[in-house]
Design brief:
Elements lengths: L33 H9 L5 H8 L6 E3 L4 H5 L13 H10 L10 E3 L11 H7 L6 H8 L1 H12 L1 H15 L22
Antiparallel strand pairs: 1-2
Helix pairs in contact: 2-7, 2-8, 5-7, 6-7, 7-8
Length: about 190
């Protein structure tokens, strides 16, 4: 619930080929550094600020425990738990994810404070070490992104406006024109 209202552009054409092997190189991974994240987003024409706004979508949804387990159990030789993670959170996650290797479907909410609400709490969480994914928490520790985390944490309107602008821009990345694509009758399959 909540979040900004924005119009979604209609009539976008999709490609006629869907290949799973092309996905990973086009998406940010939960273990990426800010430099790696910035590279993925820059390849699509996004600035650092736009990237931080888009990643703010993690204010809703969940992640499977396997995506952040290294932060809980095997971070480094010096510390099995990522020291940037809030201690209370890490202990709760260790309990919630205790059997993640036996049950790969185990997951937790990305935003532990307001998981069902699209708001700026995600950024406030990062300031408190409550980022779930490593790629989330590094947004607060890197000076290139920290300024945006701090802005969005204190100003929800700024976050919403930046998110809407970035989502609109995202909606036209890689648009197919002419005979290079099709408007699908069903989004999960190529037209026949």
């Amino acid at each position: 619930t909540g979040g900004p209202y924005y119009k979604v552009r209609l009539g976008r054409k999709d490609g006629r080929v869907s290949d799973a092997s092309r996905v990973e190189s086009n998406l940010p991974l939960p273990t990426m550094t800010v430099t790696q994240l910035a590279s993925v987003f820059a390849a699509k024409g996004f600035s650092i600020g736009e990237m931080v706004a888009l990643i703010g979508a993690h204010t809703i949804g969940f992640s499977h425990c396997k995506e952040f387990a290294k932060r809980l159990y095997s971070f480094s030789r010096a510390s099995p738990v990522d020291p940037s993670m809030n201690t209370v959170l890490s202990q709760a996650l260790q309990k919630a994810c205790a059997n993640y290797t036996k049950d790969p479907t185990m997951s937790v909410f990305n935003d532990v404070m307001t998981p069902g609400k699209f708001d700026n709490m995600y950024y406030q969480n990062l300031e408190k070490g409550l980022g779930l994914l490593a790629s989330d928490q590094v947004l607060y520790t890197d000076p290139r992104t920290k300024v945006f985390v701090e802005l969005f944490a204190r100003n929800q309107t700024a976050f919403f406006n930046a998110f809407v602008d970035a989502m609109d821009k995202l909606s036209i990345v890689g648009v197919k024109v002419g005979r290079k694509g099709e408007v699908r009758k069903r989004c999960d399959m190529v037209n026949t």
